[in-house]
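Hey team,

Filing this mostly as a record. A colleague (T.K.) asked me to run one chain through the structure pipeline before their review meeting, and I want the input and output archived in the tracker in case anyone asks later how it was produced. No errors, nothing strange. Just documentation.

Input sequence:
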Amino acid sequence: MDLRAKLQRGFGVAPAPAAAPAPDAALRAMLQRHAQREVTRHEPVALPEGREARNARGAFFLRTLRYPLATRHGHHALGDVLGVDHARLARHAREPRCPAVLPQECLFLDTETTGLGGGSGTLVFLCGIGRFDAGAFELEQVFLRSFAEEAAALAHVAQRVQESPWLVSFVGKTFDRHRLHARMTVHRVTAPILGERHFDLYYAARRAFGTQLPDCRLRTLEAQVLGVVRCDDLPGAEAPAAFLDWVRDGSGAVDRVFEHNRLDVLTLVSLMARLGAVEPPPPRTTCVQRPARIGRSRSRTAPEEQV
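Output structure:
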């Protein structure tokens, strides 16, 4: 024991505390530990099977799925919509042009965006577009792997819109088409996205089932009318963060957003078939379960119908 320690002990003086590490050294150590945790916590999320597509505006990611007409989504087979009662659809839609709507000429559209607000700053990062083609239902999912791919992706969507006499959506008159139009305007992409030939199923469903259901959200219609129960769906509020995280470091659950968008488009087909059905189909509930790491529960509500 040295002299200093003996004197401190004899006079009852506590030893001086050990010198704290310099603030910058402590901060650096903390940041290094945090960065290491982030590296080990997040594994890159792979996109579903698809391909890089190109057009005059550049490259983008395209996933194409084809379904036989006998494929069931809840109570209905996808092909059931081809035999709908057009007069019945027209009554629900209150749309005089509805009897002229042929499902095989429709483009079923649903979008995923970086936010539910308006304005040109809201990006459409995933657009699901479905149509009947060569005896099957073809679903395309147009995705931005980076912000630089937006013009090319929008150009592809615009081409599909121009090829289809009618759009079919759910709250698309209020939401989807305006987000697409805003971004198309920024990139000088032209398409009749705000045209009158737009069948918004939300308003028809509200007229058909509004007095029977607690609300007319898409999830409620799926569970109580269409026989589709999503067993592990991604909350809609998490879709924008999932995309932005994926763009930043590959950690966002975009695979689940793809799955959610896929199911939304298939539900549009089933809902149109149900609205135009002469008789309700027999009860048949389908529980849609995602594969490992794979489902938007964007519970959108709408104001009065727009044209």
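Quick notes for T.K.: Residues 51-288 form a domain with the Nucleotidyltransferase; domain 5 fold (CATH 3.30.420.10). The longest helix spans residues 254-275.
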